[in-house]
Amino acid sequence: PRPMKEDNKSRQQMWEERVLSYAVAKNDSDEIYVDGSKQYDYVFDDSAMINFTSDVEDTVPGGEDSSEGDEESDEEDEATTKYAKIQEAKKSLPVYHHRARVMKAIQDNQVLIIVGETGSGKTTQLPQYLVEDGYTQDGKYQVGVTQPRRVAATSVAARVAEEMDVKLGREVGYSIRFDDKTTPGKTVLKYVTDGMLLRECLTDPDLKKYSCIVIDEAHERTLATDILLGLLKNILARREDLKVLISSATMNTAKFSKFFGDCPILTIPGRRYPVNVHYTLQPEGNYINAAITTVFQIHTTQATDGDILLFLTGQEEIESTREKIEQIASKLGTKIPQLIIAPIYANLPQDQQALIFEPTPENCRKLVIATNIAETSLTIDGIKYVIDPGYVKENSYVPSTGMTQLLTVPCSRASIEQRAGRAGRVGPGSCFRLFTKWSFENELEMMPKPEILRTNLSNTVLLLLSLGVMDLLNFPFVDKPSIPALTKSLESLYVLGALSNRGQITELGKMMCVFPCEPEFAKVLHTASADEKCNGVLEECLSIVSMLHETTSLFIGNKRNAAARIVSETEGDHLLYLEVFRQWRDSGFSRTWCQDHRIQFKTMCRVRNIRSQLSRCCQKLGLSAQSKTAAIKLSEVIPRITRSFISGFPTNVVQLTNSGNYKMLGRQTGALTVSIHPSSVVFQNYKENAKKPDKYLLYQQLMLTSKEFIRDLLPVTQESWLTETVPQVYQELLGKRQP
Ligand code: CDP
Ligand code: MG
C-alpha cells in the first residue's frame, strides 16, 4: 500500500500545524471532542490521521466531447446575462454534441435506452429537445419525465424552467405527492416522481396526455419505476404514437433492452477526468468519525479550489454529523478556511435545497453531505473530493414475517463506482473510501438489489388490481417478485378489507387507492368516519395522519423539550401530534406560536396542506366527520381514535412481556423483542413519569440501529379493541373467542 500521496510528509506536517487545538476522533469511540482550554496548545493524535492506500481508477478521457473552452471564457463579457451564460453552459454538455444522433434515434424507435455518465445532460436537456422538436404539438401533449426522488423532481424542474426562461409551474412544472406545480393546458414539460406517474395511470390508464415519457434514473430500479416499465410495455402495444425513453447511468442497461424486445441502446460518451481512489489501510469501526476526520484532513491540507461531497445514509445521520463538524470548525475558527456545509436529503425543505447548487465563494470550501441522492440524480458542480463510507439505507422486507425495516447496508460496487465518479466532473479528483481495498474487491455485491425484491408489495398489488391487472403472475416484471412476497401482500390486503376472500378488490380497496397516502392511512380515515364503533373522529384522525407524514423535521431541537411546552402529559405520540395541530390551529396557524413552542413553522404549513388534501379527498368520497350517533362523549374520543389506527395497522402491535419488554405481535416473528425509542413520549411516561407500562402499543415505525426500536407510539389500553377491530388476527392470537 502506498501512502496517501507522494508528498505525504508535507501534507502530514500541514495537518499537524493547522489543526492546532484539535483533538480528533478515535476509531470506535463515539466522542469527538475539541478541547477549548487547549486552544493554542498543540494537540495531534497520530492515530486519527487516516492512512489511505492509493489506486488510480480507470478513466474515460474527454475524447470527442472535450470542449472545455466553452465553459470558461477568459474575458467575461460584462453584458453577458445569466440567461446567456446558461445557454453557453448548455452547449458544453456532452449530450449537446449528440443531439442530432439522439433525436434521429428517437424518431426511428418507439422505445430507446439512453445511457450516459451523470452530468451529461440526460435529465435537463433531452426533455427540452423533445419539446423544441415539436413532440408536444404546441401544447396538445406533454413530455413527462419521471424521477425516483422528490428532491430531484423539484430541483431539476426549477433548473429547466430557468434554462427555458419561463416561470416554474407554467410551461415547465413538477408534480410530487401533495405538491403539484403545473398549469393545465399550459405545462408541456413535467417532471414527476415515478410514484405519481403510477398514480396517474389510475385515472389515465393509457397516459393519453403524454406524447413522450422519459423514465429517468431507471438504473435505480425503484419499485414504482419497475412497475411503470411493466405498464408501459403494455401501453406501448396500444399506443403506437407514444415514445418511451429509458434513461440510465452506466449500469445494467442490457436488461432493459431485453425487456423491451431488444430495443436499441444509445450511449452518450461522457466527459470524465481521472479520479484517484484511496482506501483505508484497516477497516474503520466508526465510519462517521472516520468521515469527519477525513473532511478535516482534506480541508486543512488542500487548497480550497475543490468542494467535498460526503455520502451518508440519512437525515438524522447527516444532521448530527453536520453539527459535529460545525462544532469543530467553530473551535478552529480562522485557523482554517471557512467551511460551508450544505446537506441534501429527501426531506430537506425546498428553500434549503438551493444551497448545494450555489457557487462557493473564494477562499471557502463547500462540504455537501448527501444521501445517495447525489450518487446519480443530482449533479453538483465543483466537487473535487468524494468521501464514501460505503453505506446506504435500504428497505428490507421479510415476507415470512411481513416486516419491513430500514437497514443500513454496504453499497454495491456499482454504486461505489458511481460515487467516485462525482469527483471527476470538473477536473481530476480524489475519492476517499472509508473501507479497505480488500473489502471492496471481496465483500460487496456487484449490483444493488432492485427494490421490488426487498419490499412490501401490498400497495403495489392493490394498485395493479385496481388498474385491472388480475393475473399478477403474468405481469411483465423486469424482475419477478417471489411468490411468498406476493401471497403475503394479498393476505395483508385481505386483513385490511381491500380484497374479498375471493381475491377481488372491494369498494373499500378502490377507495384506498384514491387517497394520496398509503392504503393503511386511508383505512384509518375510513374507519374513523364510517365504522360503527369508531365514527365521529375523522377530524382528529386527519390531523394525526397528516402530522405523521412530517414527524422527522417537526421539532426544533429536542422533541421532549418541545413536547413539554405543549402538554404537561399525554398518553402517546399520536395524541401529542393531535394536540400540536389543535393548538396551532387555535392560534390561527401562527408563526409566533410555532417559535414559542419550538416547532418548525414550515413543517406545520406542509402538514396543513397535506391535511386539506386528505380532507378534500374524504369529502369527495362522502366520508363524513359527523358522528353517526348523538355527540360522542369526550371519554370516547381516544378509544375511537385508537381503534381506527388498529384497523389501518392491524399488525403493528407489540405486547408487554413478563420481563417488562415488548415483543412483536400479530406477525410470525417468534418473540422478537423491541425497544421503545427514547424520542417517544411513551418512553418518558414509563421511564420518568413512572407510568405503568401499557399491555399493548401500536407503532408507526420500526427501525433497526443498535437495537430494534419502535417509534410514534399509541398505547392500546383495552385488549378488546384488538380482538373486536381485527378479529381475524387477534381472536386466535390472544386465545380469546368472542361470543
Ligand atoms: O441527467 P444527467 O446526469 O445526465 O445530467 P443533468 O442532470 O441533466 O445535468 C446537466 C448539468 O446541468 C449538470 O452538469 C449541471 O451543471 C447542471 N445543473 C445545474 O446546474 N443545476 C441543477 N439543478 C441541475 C443541473
Ligand atoms: Mg439525470
TrEMBL record:
Keyword 4Fe-4S: no
One example GO MF annotation: ATP binding
Gene Ontology CC: catalytic step 2 spliceosome; U2-type catalytic step 1 spliceosome
Keywords: ATP-binding, Hydrolase, mRNA processing, mRNA splicing, Nucleotide-binding, Nucleus
Enzyme Commission (EC) number: 3.6.4.13
Gene Ontology biological process terms from the UniProt entry: generation of catalytic spliceosome for first transesterification step; snoRNA splicing
Residues covered by the Helicase ATP-binding domain: 103-269
Statement: the UniProt record of this protein carries the keyword Magnesium: no
Bias-annotated ranges (Basic and acidic residues): 1-11
Reactions accelerated catalytically: ATP + H2O = ADP + phosphate + H(+)
Chain positions covered by the region annotation Disordered: 55-78
UniProt biased composition (Acidic residues): 65-78
Cellular compartments annotated: Nucleus
Domain Helicase C-terminal: from-to ranges: 294-468
Top enzyme class: hydrolase
Listed name of the protein: RNA helicase
Organism of origin: Huiozyma naganishii (strain ATCC MYA-139 / BCRC 22969 / CBS 8797 / KCTC 17520 / NBRC 10181 / NCYC 3082 / Yp74L-3)
Residues of the whole record sequence present: 142 to 880 of 880
